[in-house]
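I am going through a labmate's work and have reached the protein record below. What it holds is a sequence and that sequence's fold in token form. Please read both lines and tell me whether the tokens look consistent with the sequence. Do not assume that whoever made the record got everything right. Thanks in advance; the entry in question is below.
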Amino acid sequence: MTRMGTKRDLAGFTGIGYDKGRGVVWQAAWQLASALLVMPWFIPVRLRIAVLRAFGARIGAGVNFRSGVRVHWPWKLSVGDHSWIGERVWILNLEPVEIGAHVCVSQAAFLCTGSHDRRSPTFEFDNGPIRIGDGAWIAARATVLRGVEVGDDALVGAAALVTSDVPAGATVLAPRAVVRADGAG
């Protein structure tokens, strides 16, 4: 039951259109492996990457995954050669995240493919993939939201909020929020 004046009914949420990509046993196994073998500081980088690959992540040569990195679903993650993923980065990839080669994603950055449709009375998902081009740098505490493509050699500055595409070679300095023309974001 909704309150007077409230247009949102979260009790009716269905999650329609969101495919986790694996069954509940695989999801649970990933959550356990992530907590024990990917996130802790004492786990060697080679083991972190081996575990991520075992769960379906496509990770190139020479990649550095630092401690505390959170990956929601590794089977929806691709990282190119010689990229760096900094401490406490959170990759909330309900949809695919593609990180190119020679990319630096700095400490505590947030890549979020999930959102909700604010016009939906039941607040259904409005998710979209993220692509980070070769040579890009996502600086510390920056946030890249769903549906965004960051072009090759682009820079997303520290603490920036990116809600729309960043052209190749462009620089986005913090703080910056862009409301998309379609009202999403």
User: Anything to note?
Assistant: The helical segments are 24-38, 45-54. The first strand starts at residue 58 and ends at 59.
